[in-house]
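Lab notebook page, bench 4
Experiment: in silico fold of construct C2
Operator: M.H.
Input chain length: 379 residues
Purpose: comparison with the prior construct
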Amino acid sequence: MRIGWVLFTALLLAMSPSIGVAQDDSTGSDTNQAGHDGTLLEQLRVLAEKGNPLAQEALGEMYATGVGVQQDFSEAVRWHRLAAEQGVVEAEFSLGGLYLRGEGVAQDYIEAARWFRLAAEQGYADAQYQLGFLCNEGQGVPQDYAEAARWFRLAAEQGHAEAQFNLGIYSQLGLGVAQDMSEALRWFRLSADQGYAPAQYNVGVHYNEGLGIPQDYIEAARWFRLSADQGYAPAQFNLGVHYDQGLSISPQFSEAAHWYRLAADQGYAPAQHNLGVCYYNGQGVAQDYSEALRMFRLAAEQGDTSSQMNLGMMYANGDGVQQDFVTALMCFSVARANGEMLGREYGAILENNMTPAEITVAKEDAEACIESAYTNCEW
């Protein structure tokens, strides 16, 4: 039995990136800065204690980020609340974020939604986006895709890249708006033009699949590369597929393996699978059954049925491992349980060469593997 080359166009993956909360990646110092910052802190505190809302908001932000002071979320909540209660939109938004993440207060989606709404109704794009996210998830508010789309649109029309991307997802899937591939592409492109990697990837998928636009592999590869260069794993994987299949350029197997590896190193299962096939066949890399086995295991542990099948084939053939029909049948049985019908056919072939006791052990191992969510699989 020969391992088959399984490639994914990742159309569904294009639709599935999380509609999520934009995170603040800033990290603060845990010590006070000397000189000007110390003076500024003293001045802000005097003004804040006198009820100046802008000083209160600034002081809250300093405590939230740890800039100029030791980070203290409880103090951040206190000062942001004082400013928010005076209608400072940035403070309303920040207080909503603290409730959303449970920083300095107990996590409370209802309170998060309340403060985001106050800021959103003042036209604050980040708050409109976050309120759309809560409507999408049904956190703190009833789940309502039409309402989510409304808030995403308000933020998107102000140029909010993540909101533009999410509105593209909604248009692609027909969530809260009419399904419209051309409209989806328009929003993805607006977001992509701001350098948002998931949107660049989705524009690439539209060109790759001819969704709302004529199919154009060269343009697809261009957008995949823009996204891949920012480290976006699905784009790295699909750029690898282009090099592998020669869709927009002549086949270059070493380049395909390079891009698969970048995505695989981020834990992206389809890339781990394809890199495993590269190692199995010696295509773009030196043939290495041990490395192929390692890649297939990593992908199989994430539920990748193609890798589960290929592990079964390697054990059945004794490729890089001692031939083991029990483990091979277990792998085929797991893949079959995940919807891969070839698992039934290959398993039947193996069972003709196994004892009833061996078959029982293999199927018990498969059940244990599935019940453990692939954390207890002897493959």
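Observations: The mean pLDDT is 91. The chain has 20 helices and no strands.
Next step: discuss at group meeting.
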